[in-house]
Write a structure and sequence with these properties.
It holds the Pfam family DUF6914. This protein is of the alpha+beta class. 27% of the residues lie in helices and 27% in strands.
Length: 196
């Protein structure tokens, strides 16, 4: 028994390269899926533009690493789905709501882009807005098991984030971040300090 114990004690991780790499290799950080709230300007009737963003952890503000999924209308009531890689933080970003963290490599920006492209967009609806698309996007991701089920509806989650954004401090060096209930949580998104 003593001999066996000694053998185990003297075994080094470096004697087993694969195990050594698995134990000591840097762990990839999970990517974050957010609802993002962007200012629309003081004269706009609807205060925030909203969409979904997939971002890396603790991103450098000026790098293009974040995927933005949203709808845009260059003409009144004519909406188009848009996907683009954008800077990790723009000056218009007011606040975010964290939906989920994904292990790095388990999701891709292109996978989300393809799935969300399936959402229907009305051809002509005076009352349809980016918030309606965001609610539909959340429901699609819940239905497909990408987001966990919750007693809150997609609209209620969005409304919690909207109220949080309304009360956010624009002078904070980090973008204010909340959970699905509207409770503030630690932010990883630093504001930009350069001129856009």
């Amino acid at each position: 028994m003593a001999s066996n114990s000694s053998e185990v004690t003297n075994t080094r991780a470096s004697d087993h390269p694969q195990i050594y790499r698995d134990i000591y290799a840097p762990r990839p950080e999970p990517e974050r899926l957010y609802i993002s709230f962007y200012t629309r300007g003081p004269q706009r009737r609807i205060k925030f533009h909203t969409g979904l963003t997939l971002a890396p952890p603790n991103p450098e503000p000026t790098l293009f690493q974040t995927w933005l999924y949203h709808i845009v209308n260059d003409k009144p009531n004519v909406w188009e789905y848009e996907v683009k890689e954008t800077k990790n933080c723009t000056r218009k970003l007011v606040a975010v709501l964290l939906l989920r963290k994904f292990a790095r490599g388990t999701v891709s920006g292109r996978d989300f882009a393809e799935a969300l492209s399936e959402l229907p967009i009305p051809e002509s609806d005076n009352h349809w807005r980016c918030c309606h698309w965001t609610w539909q996007a959340l429901q699609l991701l819940i239905d497909r098991g990408v987001l966990p089920m919750t007693y809150l509806s997609p609209r209620e989650i969005w409304e919690n984030g909207f109220r949080f954004a309304e009360n956010s401090d624009s002078q904070d060096p980090f973008i204010p971040t909340c959970d699905i209930y509207g409770n503030q949580i630690e932010s990883e998104l630093r504001r930009r300090t350069d001129i856009e």
